[in-house]
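Standup notes
- DV: blocked on the single-chain target, sequence here:
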Amino acid sequence: MDVRAAARGFAVERFYFGQITMGRRPTGELRLLAGTRGIRPELAEAIVREAYLPAPDHQDDIGGLALLRGRTAPFVFVQTIMMGGDEPFRYYVILPQDVLRSLSGNLRALLALAQRTFPTYEVTGQPLQPLIIQPADTPPTDLQEQAMLNLMTIMRDRLDAIESLLSAVIQGIPVIVRGAPPELPKRIALIEGVLSLLPPPTRYGVTFASCAYSNSPVDAQIRFVSDDGPVPPEALSYTWGDPHTSGASPRSDYARFIKSQLRLDTRHVIERTQALTPVAGWRLKRGDSIMDALAYGSKRLRIDEALLNHQPVEPYDVARILAEDITLPDTLRLAYIRHLLAFALVLDEDENTNQLTGAAQGQPDLERAILNEMRKALAAGKGDRVYRRIARWLATPDGFRGMHWIDLLQRAAIANARALASAGDADGLSRFLKDVRSAPNASDFSPIIAHLIDAALPLAATHRPLAETVFTMGAAALPAEQLGRLFTVRGLIGQLPKSVGLLLVHMQNNRTDSPPAGLLAQAAFDFEEALRPLIVIRLTELVTLASQYALLDTAALENLSAAAATPWGDTCETTLRWLARTLSTEEALRRFDARGRAALLRILLIRHAYADLAVEFIRHQKLFFP
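- DV (later): unblocked, structure below
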């Protein structure tokens, strides 16, 4: 069936089905009388079987109306009326989903398809022009409010009954209405009242039949029946004017939410359904059922209001909405972000706050908002939490990037170090500095290492683990001049291994006695294993700058060449090459034994300094193998 977009609106298929007229009286079998080009007799018969609507007991100029689902056509608008024959005369309009959606849940626009005058046909196969259906707007507020009031009048203001009826419609449970007045407008009032309680995008799927039988196979959610036949066990039954429903007892979070709003004011309901329009529409397009779309929408509204009123909300729900909901406006998105940040900064919670990076992806305004909130937290003295949160974001592949985040991370690190120092927490400060030293993005901290060390020095002078952490952090990041200054800090050397103190004595004094063999290697060995290569490189650098070559014995040089083959060799590439060149002067080389000289050559080999290695081979040959 072809739905052609006309210059304005949609062109849809339609047909008449009934008896031919002979002698001004309908007679004969029911058949396709007239239809648009896409309607064939077998197609019309299939639609009639699926969308069969009996004629109403009460006759007027409209007859019975229905919006039904079918398999042959997604939706069918049906009008049936008696025209003097033995069988009803029926009018069918085929309504694809897009066409029905274009009516914006406006029942009056749908009912405008009904005809008040009907043609008669003496022969079959008459052609019809497609029906042009214009898109419609959602009914104005005053009409929706009146529809709600009419429904409440019908149901005697029993909100529990309205909740049950609405729950059934949402869950696709058949609603059987008995005892309704025969007049069509009164029956339509109940349908219109129910629709007014739903967001417009979900209304199009609510089907109805103004006249049916209890055992009718018609696929309509709301059916008005006049017989006393048994009601299907899965159906909800309502007798017109009663304060209660019977049969099925469905429950819906959305219906419960709407009932709470009806207790306040019908305008509250309209405001809520309008607010739910983009949310429900988005969920339906995702493939949600009406029940799921409305359950999500009502939950979203409750969470929105709770956050705006600074009430507690589960962070998981906030994170999920923030990550998934494309209908969340920026003003609310900021409230969601602040809520998650509050949890992150109070509970140091990871799982849900990681959603913030995804929510701000491609949203510079939101990223700035998160950045500003973190700055406020830092100013409020939450440096430790700000540091941990930003460090984790920066460490994730999809985390935040850029100089503003690194700057805030650095300021938070300094603030946290100073806070720990002020509190006298030497153990905590040592752990924090180790965390900084081993961070995946450790290079981001290079500009502030001196500040972190300065904050820790007063405590380090009386706390050995912290003193070692400070020294190794300086060894990893400080230039030689600044690293050497650490040896002048009163009390610090006393907290380091004794071998380091003894090494310092031999570096600073013009002693006539020789240092103990292997002193430099021992000083490095007295630190934790993972850091020994770094310590031996940096201590060798300080000793070389001090021209204390007596400390550079074979053990020191062999340890230095071994360090060149570790990851610290990559970090200290420039220093290692400088040491190899500086210690390869004729004067220096004559101080070392063959193993020491070989260690210097291995450094160049390990670091792939082949040009320098070739030069040194020649030098060694001239000096030691003439």
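- Follow-up: The chain has 30 helices and 14 strands.
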